[in-house]
Write a structure and sequence with these properties.
The protein is an alpha+beta fold. Helices cover 51% and strands 21% of the residues. Bound molecules: (R)-mevalonate.
Length: 403
C-alpha cells in the first residue's frame, strides 16, 4: 500500500478510504484476488416496491450512478398495482466448449465423439459428485463442426445443470477432464476448454403491467412503445437502451457478489443472437391502455461458491434479498432490469432524464466542493434553481452560506 501511496501521491485520507476495508477484511480480500491493496466502497442502496411472483422483495443495489435506485423503485410501484412481476426460467443449464483443431475428417470425428457420449458424460460427472448428488451435473453432449479462417474445427459442447452454482468452475473442470478423450477420439489437437457466457439454456423471463395513469397517460405510453421500436431497430439506440437494463441488473448482481462481466457478456451476445443487436425487452399495450413489458435474458448467477458465499457484504445482501435459489435470484434480477428499462423509457418519453439526474448530481457536486450536513442540500438546491451545477459555483455558495 505504501508503494502505491507514494507513487500516486495519495493523501492520507484517500489512502485510508482505500485500505480501511469497511465491509471486507484484509484477509478475506486477500483470499479473493491477487496483489490486494484495499477495497473500493460503492454506494449500496435498497430498491423498494418489488413484488415478484406474489412475494415482496427489498432489493440491494450497488451502484455509483444517481437516480438508478429511485427509478427502479418507482417503476416497480407502477407494476405493483397490476400484480407486480411474473417470472419463469429455463433451468440452470450452462454450456462448456471443447475446441478440437487439425482434425482430418471433422464430420466423422463428430459422430465418433457422439458415439462415446455416455462414457464422456460419466467422466465429466466423476469430477463433481456433490453437484450430481443434488440433481445437477453433465446431462448431454452436443458436437458441431464450424468453418473458421483457420479451417474446420470440431466443437464439443457439454450441457451441464449447475443447480445453485454459477457453474464456471464445475463446467471448466468437466471440460478439462474429458478433453484428452475427445482429442483421442477426434485424432486432432484440443486447445480451448471453457464455459460459454452465451447462456442460452439459462434464460430468465419476467413480465409486468405498468399502470397507464401512474406512468403519465396515453401520450407517455405511446412514447414508451416508440422508444422500444427505436431501440429494437437501431443498434446505436439499442446499446443505450440495453445499458439501461444493465444498470439494474448489474447493480443487484454486484451487491450479491455475482460475476458481473459474465452477465454483461451473456446479455449483449444474446441481444445479437439473430445477427442484429436487439432489445432484451419488449413493450405492448393491453386493452385498458396499460403498458405490458417483458424481458428475456441469460442469467448465469449462483449462490454457492463465488463471492456471494465469501464476501460479508454480499452475503448480507443475499439475506436482505431473501432468495433461496440461483433461479429465484436470476428472476428477481431480470425483474429489476425490466423495471429499470421501463423507468428510463418513461423518463425519456416525457420530461427527459436530466432533471432528476441533475438534482442528485448537484448534491454530489456540493459534497465534492466541501459541503457537509444541511449545507449539501442548500447548495444543491440553489445550483439547480440557477441551472448552474458547477464545482466553482458550489464553492462560492458554500462560502456564502457559511458566513
Ligand atoms: C443511463 O445510465 C441509462 C439511460 O441512458 C438508458 C436509456 O437511455 O434507455 C437513461
Amino acid at each position: 500500500m505504501k508503494v502505491v501511496k507514494d507513487f500516486s501521491n495519495l493523501e492520507e485520507k484517500e489512502a485510508y478510504s482505500i485500505s480501511s476495508l469497511a465491509g471486507l477484511s484484509a484477509e478475506t480480500a486477500d483470499h479473493m484476488i491477487e496483489n490486494v491493496i484495499g477495497a473500493i466502497p460503492i454506494p449500496l442502496g435498497i430498491a423498494t416496491n418489488f413484488y415478484v411472483n406474489s412475494k415482496d422483495y427489498l432489493v440491494p443495489m450497488a451502484i455509483e450512478e444517481p437516480s438508478v435506485v429511485a427509478a427502479a423503485s418507482n417503476a416497480a410501484k407502477m407494476a405493483r398495482k397490476h400484480g407486480g412481476f411474473k417470472t419463469s426460467n429455463t433451468g440452470p443449464i450452462m454450456i462448456g466448449q471443447i475446441q478440437t483443431v487439425r482434425v482430418l475428417n471433422p464430420h466423422r470425428a463428430r459422430l465418433e465423439i457422439l458415439a462415446q457420449k455416455d462414457e464422456l458424460l460419466r467422466k465429466a460427472n466423476e469430477q463433481d459428485p456433490k453437484l450430481v448428488s443434488v440433481g445437477g451435473g453433465a446431462k448431454d453432449l452436443e458436437v458441431k463442426v464450424i468453418d473458421t479462417p483457420r479451417g474446420k474445427m470440431v466443437i464439443s459442447e457439454l450441457i451441464v445443470d449447475c443447480r445453485d452454482a454459477m457453474g464456471a468452475n464445475a463446467v471448466n473442470t468437466m471440460a478439462e477432464a474429458i478433453a484428452p478423450q475427445i482429442e483421442k477420439i477426434a485424432r486432432g489437437k484440443v486447445f480451448l476448454r471453457i464455459i460459454s457466457n452465451l447462456a442460452t439454456r439459462r434464460l430468465v423471463r419476467s413480465t409486468a403491467t405498468f399502470d397507464k395513469e401512474m406512468l403519465g397517460g396515453d401520450e407517455v405510453a405511446e412514447g414508451i412503445l416508440d422508444a422500444y421500436a427505436f431501440a429494437d431497430t437501431d443498434p446505436y439506440r439499442c446499446a443505450t437502451h440495453n445499458k439501461g437494463i444493465m444498470n439494474g441488473v448489474i447493480a443487484v448482481a454486484l451487491a450479491v457478489g455475482q460475476d458481473t462481466r459474465a452477465l454483461e457478456a451473456g446479455a449483449h451476445s444474446y441481444a445479437s443472437r439473430t445477427g442484429r443487436y436487439r432489445s432484451l425487452t419488449t413493450y405492448e399495450r393491453d386493452s385498458e391502455g396499460n403498458v405490458v413489458g417483458t424481458i428475456e435474458m441469460p442469467m448465469a448467477v449462483g449462490l454457492i461458491g463465488g463471492a456471494s458465499a465469501v464476501h460479508p457484504v454480499a452475503k448480507a445482501c443475499v439475506r436482505i434479498l431473501g432468495v433461496k435459489s440461483a433461479s429465484e435470484l436470476g428472476e428477481v434480477i431480470a425483474s429489476v432490469g425490466l423495471a429499470q428499462n421501463f423507468a428510463a423509457l418513461r423518463a425519456l418519453s416525457s420530461e427527459g432524464i436530466q432533471r432528476g439526474h441533475m438534482k442528485l448530481h448537484a448534491r454530489n457536486v456540493a459534497a465534492s466542493a466541501g459541503a457537509s450536513g444541511e449545507l449539501v442540500d442548500l447548495v444543491a438546491q440553489k445550483m439547480v434553481e440557477e441551472r448552474k451545477i458547477r464545482f466553482d459555483r458550489a464553492q462560492e455558495l458554500i462560502a456564502q452560506f457559511s458566513k
